[in-house]
Amino acid sequence: MEMEAQVGQSLIRLARDQRVASLGTILDGHPLVSLVPFNANNDLSAFDIHVSRLAQHARALTQSLKVGLLIAAADSHARNPQALARLSIRGFAEPLDTNTPAFEEARESYLRKFPQSEISFQLGDFYFIRIKPVAARLVVGFGNIHDLTGDDISSLARQTHGFN
Question: Distances from the Cα of 36 to the Cαs of 152, 155, 158, in angstroms?
Fold first, then answer.
């Protein structure tokens, strides 16, 4: 149980403390990696990004909704970079309909994390993409690796936060 709590804390710390992630998509049959601001919902069952339709990764999402999202702790020259905490997610992306409670909740939460992004909500080319994890690999130190399902991620987050 103690190990599970430590894994849950590491998972939540990465999702809450980090502001940007690397988004992997497929564009015209080739891999594309982009840096995107992200926000995780409370139980980590979904990760939201607010993207412009003008971006290459938005175009890629019209070709395939399969995505990868890498959230990593900041590098420090004092540590072995292979020991950096990181969460590599495989999942599916879906646009959020603006006329839903899910959109409003995502917007409010996103703006708490990124208040400077208010202007992008007034521009017609931006929209929300919700990434739902199917599987992930959590590395919390050298050799400390955990393969997780999407359900494992949200279960660990709920247990660590003490809610169901």
Answer: 24, 25, 25
49, 132 contact by CB (below 8 A)? no
Q: Which residues pair with 24 in a beta bridge?
A: 33, 68
pLDDT less than 50: residues of the chain: 1, 164
Q: Which of 59, 83, 57, 81 is nearest to 69 (CA)?
A: 57
* pTM of the predicted protein model: 0.90
- Per-residue pLDDT tens digits for 127-144: 899 999 999 999 987 778
- From CA 142, how far away is CA 84, in angstroms rounded? 8
